[in-house]
From TrEMBL:
InterPro entries: CheY-like_superfamily (IPR011006), NreC/VraR/RcsB-like_REC (IPR058245), Sig_transdc_resp-reg_C-effctor (IPR016032), Sig_transdc_resp-reg_receiver (IPR001789), Tscrpt_reg_LuxR_C (IPR000792), WalR-like (IPR039420). Residues 151-216 form the HTH luxR-type domain. The lineage of its organism: Bacteria, Bacillati, Actinomycetota, Actinomycetes, Micromonosporales. One of its GO terms (biological process) is regulation of DNA-templated transcription. PANTHER family: TRANSCRIPTIONAL REGULATORY PROTEIN NARL-RELATED, TWO-COMPONENT RESPONSE REGULATOR. Keywords: DNA-binding, Phosphoprotein, Transcription, Transcription regulation. It comes from the Bacteria. GO terms for molecular function: DNA binding. Residues 6-123 form the Response regulatory domain. This is DNA-binding response regulator. The modification 4-aspartylphosphate is found at residue 57.
């Protein structure tokens, strides 16, 4: 029997935490291991309970969700995956949270089925970056353009085909969409992504998006 996915819920509103806990604990294959009302509590509980996934709110007292994500993702293995729960008025935090190590984003008003699916996707090592979130990430790069770097910086050892795959990942395409556009088998796309994760030292798809932009391979204008 497969062990359940262990989830830590971090939100400063008790009602929200309770609602998420009921949702998680009644879903097959998921279980809640703790609740945190502050960023500081989230870091402490993550260290003590070693969850697979942390549902992280951004605005919390003592330490915000971005700082808490950075602390949690800096812990020794096994590092939990952090799924950030955000609202439309928090778009400016998308890039900062990804840089801190978050594996994905969901809107707080997402349907319950989407939240449960998101937890499973992130726990499996996939980054949860819908095209709409990727577009917000592009907008964030446009507002905070990093210093100019030669195109491809940090991509040593990445093949031309892997670069093509990386560009499409950064544009928000799914594996089947990448396979269709490049006329590859889905299994081949998955292999290329595995090579990219290893070569770039990335934990998941979200970090590949960051690498694509920071290397200059993809720019907001493109």
């Amino acid at each position: 029997m497969t062990d359940p996915i262990r989830v830590l819920i971090a939100d400063d509103q008790a009602l929200v935490r309770g609602s998420f806990r009921v949702l998680v604990d009644t879903a097959p294959g998921l279980t809640t291991v703790g609740e945190a009302g502050t960023g500081t509590e989230a870091v402490t509980l993550a260290r003590g309970t070693r969850p697979d996934v942390v549902l992280m709110d951004i605005r919390m007292p003592e330490m915000d969700g971005i700082a808490a994500t950075r602390r949690i993702c800096a812990e020794p293995d096994p590092v939990p995956r952090v799924l950030v729960l955000t609202t439309f008025d928090l778009d400016e935090y998308v890039y900062a949270a990804l840089r801190a190590g978050a594996s994905g984003f969901l809107l707080k008003d997402a349907p319950p089925a989407d939240l449960l699916a998101g937890i499973r996707v992130v726990a499996a090592g996939e980054g949860l970056l819908a095209p709409t979130v990727t577009r917000r990430l592009i907008a964030e790069f446009a507002r905070h353009t990093p210093p100019a770097r030669p195109v491809g910086s940090g991509l040593d050892g990445v093949t031309d085909r892997e670069r093509e795959v990386l560009v499409l990942i950064a544009r928000g395409l799914s594996n089947p969409e990448i396979a269709e556009q490049l006329r590859l088998r889905p299994a081949t796309v998955k292999t290329h992504i595995g090579h990219l994760l290893a070569k770039l030292g990335a934990r998941d798809r979200a970090q590949l998006v960051i690498a694509a932009y920071e290397s200059g391979l993809v720019t907001p204008a493109s």
